[in-house]
Design a protein that fits this description.
Elements lengths: L3 H20 L6 H23 L11 E9 L4 E7 L1 H20 L6 H20 L3 H10 L1 H11 L4 H34 L7 H4 L6 H18 L9 H7 L2 H26 L4 H25 L3 H22 L2 H32 L15 H15 L5 H16 L1 H26 L13 H19 L2 H18 L7
Antiparallel strand pairs: 1-2
Helix pairs in contact: 1-2, 1-4, 2-3, 2-4, 3-4, 3-11, 3-14, 3-19, 4-5, 4-6, 4-11, 5-7, 6-7, 7-9, 7-10, 9-11, 10-11, 10-13, 11-13, 11-14, 11-19, 12-13, 12-17, 13-14, 13-16, 13-17, 14-15, 14-16, 14-18, 14-19, 15-17, 15-18, 16-17, 16-18
Length: about 500
């Protein structure tokens, strides 16, 4: 079969699963079984794609599984999919996240509709990571708003309506800049080539433009991605939304939709506009380190565990932005790896917070104390995830942050120095939160420890945290050639190698 069919299946399977779940929603547990079965198939497909990726030419940086079909030539509409080492990691993360969200954060309220929206969100997220056409990417990128909005507004907490509206308005407004920038770039390319209108990534990446035009287009693209990530100061929707979304929704927002922002920043804003880098790099690096410090400071004083993870994610997105914008290969490889590792770590955090919330009915730190005694397994699992987020050597978070910081120190030492403070602050606020929740004397009702099901759900998270901390080489070998290809395209404009 045509190799691109594998990528089309990754988009189509969750779409078909969403339809099937909606059709059987009235039957007890049927929709949930359909959703879990679909996510298992999706996970298997992603692993097959990971195994087959560039099998013929190991270590190659070319896009694999490529296929393009023009749908409406006068409008530049095309279905164009392809995969490289950067998007491969995001594809595996997307499949893993939806499976763990379904297994570990089941919500039985109108379950058929809930899992259908979740699978629909997975399909659109996959489409975003696999799109090799800028307009196609925008369409999938924008479509993710719809299921995310309904998941938050229909299954969220007491302030779910406000959180969903704020999320939608912020992200939709940011996307408007991306849409205008995409159209301008497509028409500029058509004018230069006197050919047909196209938004193909490979074509637009060769479009000639002045540094001023490149800078304005970078800003237009970056606004959309900064909102989605989020990057300071366009982050203000995230604490409320993360706190009010149902557990599965918080997992999707932090582990996947945030990565759409950082992936877009690297793949499109950074790679398509090399002439903008000299103008925008100081600003973007400054925003990144401000986000690291600001997010860490707010995480230290927030009274809610979900908001703590939201502010921690703001700091981690700052690290990813720092790594991308340095232009250093080492730092950029670290940034891509952190996109994956942070996704896994936040899945672990939100699953554990969901387990706690199910037992106590609250994620407010003041309502929780002394859990280590009655729930030692929960405490141990939280410790592993927390230490990975801090960046303890031997766990996945360390490798990512280390690569980002040594790459940044080599090219932009002052920003790297400020960013290093974020590692220290992360240790402070996470250890303090752990002490307040798990240490001390428990005075509440009896608490059950992690169930067998909850422990098994956490196994992939812990295994990945340890495996990628001890032996990250196979993943780095997949990322590095694709990052090098981006750098070689941007380097003539003055980006450091």
């Amino acid at each position: 079969m045509h190799s691109s069919l594998w990528l089309s299946l990754l988009i189509a399977v969750p779409l078909a699963g969403a339809l099937a779940a909606a059709l059987v929603r009235e039957r007890l547990n049927a929709a949930y079984r359909v959703a879990v079965g679909t996510s298992v198939i999706e996970m298997a497909l992603s692993l097959v794609v990971a195994f087959l990726y560039n099998n013929a030419v190991p270590g190659a940086a070319t896009f694999d599984f490529a296929g393009r079909w023009v749908l409406a030539a006068p409008f530049g509409l095309a279905y164009d999919v392809a995969l490289d080492g950067i998007s491969l990691l995001m594809v595996v993360l997307t499949a893993l996240v939806v499976l763990l969200a379904l297994l570990g954060a089941r919500d039985t309220r109108r379950e058929g509709a809930f899992v259908a929206w979740l699978l629909l969100l997975t399909s659109f997220t996959m489409g975003s990571f696999l799109a090799h056409d800028v307009l196609e990417f925008f369409i999938f990128f924008e479509l993710t708003l719809v299921p995310a909005y309904f998941i938050i507004s229909q299954w969220g907490g007491a302030q779910r309506s406000r959180a969903a509206l704020k999320f939608f308005v912020y992200t939709f407004t940011g996307s408007a800049f991306l849409f205008v920038g995409t159209l301008y770039l497509g028409f500029a390319h058509q004018h230069q080539t006197q050919g047909a209108l196209t938004f193909a990534y490979s074509a637009l990446s060769s479009t000639a433009m002045s540094s001023g035009t490149a800078t304005w287009l970078f800003v237009a693209f970056a606004i959309a991605f900064a909102v989605k990530s989020p990057i300071w100061p366009l982050h203000t929707w995230s604490p409320l939304t993360y706190a009010e979304a149902p557990t599965a929704g918080s997992i999707e927002l932090s582990a996947l939709l945030a990565k759409l922002g950082s992936y877009g920043l690297l793949r499109f804003a950074f790679a398509l506009f090399p002439l903008a880098q000299a103008n925008v790099r100081p600003v973007m690096l400054s925003l990144a380190v401000i986000g690291i410090i600001y997010g860490s400071a707010l995480a230290a004083v927030t009274p809610d565990l979900k908001r703590l993870v939201a502010f921690s994610s703001l700091a981690q997105m700052g690290f990813i932005t720092l790594g991308i914008m340095t232009g250093s290969k080492i730092a950029m490889v670290g940034a891509v790896l952190l996109m994956f590792n942070h996704g896994v770590i936040t899945v672990g955090f939100f699953l554990l917070i969901g387990f706690i919330e199910k037992r106590r009915g609250s994620a407010t730190i003041a309502d929780l104390t002394g859990w280590q005694g009655p729930a030692p397994v929960l405490a141990a699992l939280f410790t592993v995830v927390m230490l990975a987020s801090i960046g303890l050597p031997g766990l996945s978070g360390f490798v990512s942050e280390y690569l980002i910081l040594i790459g940044a120190f080599a090219t932009h030492a002052w920003w790297a120095l400020v960013g290093t403070l974020g590692v220290v602050l992360a240790a402070l606020y996470l250890l303090w939160a752990y002490q307040r929740v798990f240490h001390g004397r428990h005075h509440g009702e009896a608490i059950s420890d992690a169930s067998a099901r909850e422990r098994w759900v956490m196994v992939p998270v812990v295994v990945l945290i340890v495996a990628l901390g001890v032996f990250p080489r196979p993943v780095l070998d997949r990322i590095s050639p694709s990052v090098q290809q981006v750098i070689e395209h941007v380097a003539p404009a003055g980006v450091s190698k």
